[in-house]
Protein: Cytochrome
Organism: Xaviernesmea rhizosphaerae
Amino acid sequence: MPFDPPFRLAADHPSVSLDLHDPRFFTDPWASYAALHAQAPRFFWEEEGKWFFASYADVNALLRDRRFGRQILHVASRQELGLPEPQPHLADFDRIESFSLLELEPPAHTRLRTLVNRAFVSRQIDRLTPRITALSHALIDGFADKGETELLTSYAEVIPVTIIAEMLGVPQEAAPRLLDWSHRMVRMYMARPTRETEDDANQASADFGAYLADIIDWKRKNPADDLLTQMITADRDGQTLSEEELISTAALLLNAGHEATVHQIGNAVALILSQGADPAALFADDRATTLTVEECLRRAAPLHLFQRIALEDVTLDGGITIKRGERIGLLLGAANVDPTRFTDPMAFRPTRDEGANLSFGAGIHFCIGAPLARLELKISLPILFQHLPNLRLKAMPEVKDSFHFHGLERVELVW
Ligand code: HEM
């Protein structure tokens, strides 16, 4: 049956009406992306009230375009832009966000990113190989005899949170609380959160912030060989992070350090199994594993949408004008299946070697954790398939109704 796109394209103008919560969209956004690539790779999304970009060339260029930022309040006031005042019931959430690397623009972003980046360069991250390997084996040993497992809770969720908590030097016992705070805060990034979600995210931010302040205080007195201590200690040029920057950065690393990777492990396993691909070939050697991991990131990315705000009036080639202060939507998930960039883009081809996908973004906010996420995927996926060679999906997993995160509700496996 031909695909019936869940959106309506206006006849005279590239304007699209599309319900984010339509299961035909969020369960398989790639089918809609294919239709959008054919009909309207740049479109005004009526329900969202802004322009969206789906092509690889646009998304790649706009992520790097310094006329757009993740933030505008460093160059304009709320009054000037006609923005509402911050809401008191979101004060704790906003406080953590306002010092977050992800929400800053240069020069503040450059300074903070330089301080944190040292820990995330590949050379440092590669040292984690034995630990990620041992953890992956230990987790599988815990459920291998059972003949079945729910992958997200037994495996995918444990590896990233354990590793990032250990890197930062946050006690392991805190992992369940970290996951809980993080899940509650991350719900704020979904389209139009409810008041209940906002209150809950604010409470989680307050509790998370207080917990991190205590740990930071303890680390000041008990420095150790970990990232939090490194961030507390002045660097060569005497640069340090303020208390608020420390809390925000630690919270961001703990949240970003696992949310996307959990879903990517789940998405990759479901993709491989549903395609009937041969794991022995996928993970035959280091190069095959690297290409498989990249193809899974391209074809089943966990984060599909990031926004930018115009820092000045911008007229794009083709005549679209974005006014200062207006937002645009960049569809990373769609860019990854652009037929002008990837051959037969909807096909899962683990040997594909066609250059970078955009799953980790591009430009100054390019994912700082990409080397870590890639290493976790390169280790955890082959170990899972090697340990359990008869792995099968018990049922087709349900997709979460949470575009722009593309994640699965549960991944029930049998062997
Ligand atoms: C598969 C896993 C992951 C994916 C797909 C992913 C994706 C992304 C993307 C697309 C961005 C850019 C956002 C933008 O341009 O607006 C980003 C930024 C970021 N990511 Fe990741 N990420 C992953 C894992 C991680 C991990 C493991 C960490 C940390 C340990 C991490 C930490 C960060 C941070 C701190 C930023 C902000 C960087 C900045 O603003 O300069 N991410 N990530």
About this structure: The CA atoms of residues 151 and 411 lie 5 Å apart. The first strand starts at residue 7 and ends at 9. The longest helix spans residues 243-275. The radius of gyration is 21 Å.
